[in-house]
Design brief:
Helices cover 52% and strands 10% of the residues. It has helices at residues 4-17, 20-42, 47-63, 65-78, 89-102, 114-118, 121-127, 137-144, 161-171, 180-197, 223-229, 250-262, 297-302, 317-321, 323-328, 339-349, 366-370, 377-390, 396-409, 412-431, 443-446, 459-467; strands spanning 82-86, 107-110, 131-134, 200-203, 207-209, 214-219, 233-239, 243-244, 269-273, 287-293. Helix 2 packs antiparallel against helix 12 (250-262) and helix 16 (339-349) runs parallel beside helix 18. It binds iron/sulfur cluster.
Length: 470
């Protein structure tokens, strides 16, 4: 795995893992999440039953995607909305940019949406001359810093209070003080001006409800609700996998998502939108568009082994529990979706040169255990590794190592022989003080840790010496 993205990932990951301040920040944030999640999970009469039900709902939606997407489309059109099927990022971007240009849009407000990050929508709108405002506070902060979100749910969790205060003083007017209340008030001021002057509001979708043709959006700040109700044109950009069969499915999906995402019993604002303002209604948008994005999802759907990746409801729990994410943070991955789910998705959404991310895992299975829709994440990381090796993308040294391992494991004498050679080599290298250097085959470990003591003989020999038996 020597692609440019792989080299860049290794460089960033090494830098971040060695940054103790960053790791302390991450650990504090994640520990806080774990405590909230444990409390939230305890509110369920049976958390495992809720997970199983969510899994079944998503199974039904994804395995009957053709039926439910068409049902969703028909319901939206009945209410005067429009639905656009985008094969890829470019088609989705072009639709929104052309729509905005044709309607004379100058200002756009956006609710938090990872799909719009995936298709790089904001830069395209800005290039076309429009002003774009991220309205989720975390997204607003990272937009001011001109950087991508750090985490699926907590985009600015890598920043300290002091960093945000400095940023706001530099970029915003009306910042009364450095305390959190004053900082939030300054952001609110700026965003209210944007909300009241924007002609277009863009949201993602947490779920698309087939039987009612509604887009379900869940936020904690109310910004999503303002985005979909104040501007005269409303656009929801979403992946095709977000469809669920019935409105009543939200009764379990919404609280389970809230608990897995932040430990809350329910997210503060849960909004359903399904069309433009109708005659007699006092408010709501004049136009309502839904963009259903494929962008590689159909290929995942066709793959029976990995189809359940499409069940993901983007709660971020697998990131929070992953020991690799907890060491290197979100920006190291270099992809829209970081952590275990991002590592599984990256080769499918970004191409085979992102197969290296499947190795950014200890395969401990914590991600699979926590996932509220039971995506079999760590096995998919293994599937991706297998696919990469089958496609000839494995490293030469790795292939050689496994060939040697296979040969050695086929006989006790061979195993003893190889073990003896490895022990002797490592002892000699470490005696010469070469641990952690390019010559050390264990340098991935020894460049940051003390070398383990090398035993003088194999386990079998030591056993025989001690017990006098084979
Ligand atoms: S894979 Fe599961 S745990 Fe990870 S973000 Fe998706 S739903 Fe959450």
């Amino acid at each position: 795995m020597n692609s440019a993205p792989a080299q860049e990932f290794l460089r960033r990951a090494a830098e971040r893992a060695a940054d103790l301040t960053h790791r302390q920040m991450l650990r504090a944030g994640m520990d806080h999440y774990q405590a909230n999640f444990a409390k939230g999970r305890g509110r369920f009469a049976d958390w495992e039953a809720a997970r199983q039900r969510c899994h079944e709902i998503k199974w039904e939606g994804v395995n009957h995607l053709d039926k439910y997407l068409l049902e969703f489309e028909a319901r939206v059109k009945e209410r005067g909305g429009r639905v656009f099927w985008a094969e890829n990022s470019e088609e989705a971007r072009n639709y929104v940019v052309n729509l905005a240009a044709s309607r004379g849009v100058r200002r756009v407000v956006k609710s938090k949406s990872m799909v719009t990050e995936e298709i790089h929508l904001s830069p395209a709108l800005e290039k076309a001359g429009m002003e774009v405002f991220e309205t989720d506070l975390g997204e607003f902060i990272v937009q001011l810093r001109n950087e991508p979100p750090y985490h699926i749910v907590m985009p600015a969790m890598h920043l300290t209070h002091a960093q945000i205060a400095k940023l706001f003083h530099e970029k915003l007017s009306d910042v009364a003080g450095d305390d959190p209340v004053s900082l939030v008030a300054a952001a609110r001021q700026a965003l209210r001006r944007a909300f009241f002057s924007a002609e277009m509001g863009i949201s993602g979708a947490n779920f698309l409800v087939a039987d009612s043709g509604l887009v379900a959006i869940t936020t904690n700040e109310g910004n999503g609700r303002l985005c979909v109700s104040l501007p005269r044109i409303q656009v929801a950009v979403t992946g095709i996998e977000k469809v669920i069969p019935r409105l009543r499915d939200l009764a379990v999906l919404w609280p389970t998502l809230a608990t897995a995402g932040t430990g809350q019993a329910i997210t503060t604002y849960n909004t359903l939108v399904g069309g433009p303002r109708r005659p007699g209604e006092p408010d709501g948008p004049e136009e309502f568009h839904v963009i259903l994005l494929d962008n590689g999802r159909s290929e995942l759907l066709a793959d029976a082994e990995q189809r359940d990746v499409l069940y993901c409801i983007r709660c971020g729990a697998c990131l929070n529990t992953c020991p690799v994410f907890r060491a290197i943070g979100g920006h190291s991955y270099g992809t829209t979706y970081p952590g275990p789910i991002g590592s599984v998705l990256a080769p499918h959404l970004r191409g085979p040169e992102f197969a290296h991310l499947s190795y950014a895992s200890s395969l401990c299975g914590a991600c699979t255990d926590i996932c509220p829709v039971k995506v079999d994440l760590h096995h998919h990381l293994l599937h991706n590794r297998r696919n990469a090796v089958n496609a000839g993308r494995g490293r030469f040294g790795e292939r050689l190592g496994f060939k040697l391992w296979r040969w050695a494991m086929a006989g006790a004498r061979r195993f003893e022989l190889v073990g003896g050679v490895v022990r002797a080599t490592l002892r000699a290298l470490y005696a010469l003080g070469l641990e952690g250097t390019a010559l050390d085959p264990a340098r991935a470990w020894t460049r940051n840790h003390a070398a383990p003591a090398i035993p003088r003989a194999s386990f079998r020999k030591l056993w025989r010496e001690k017990n006098g038996a084979r």
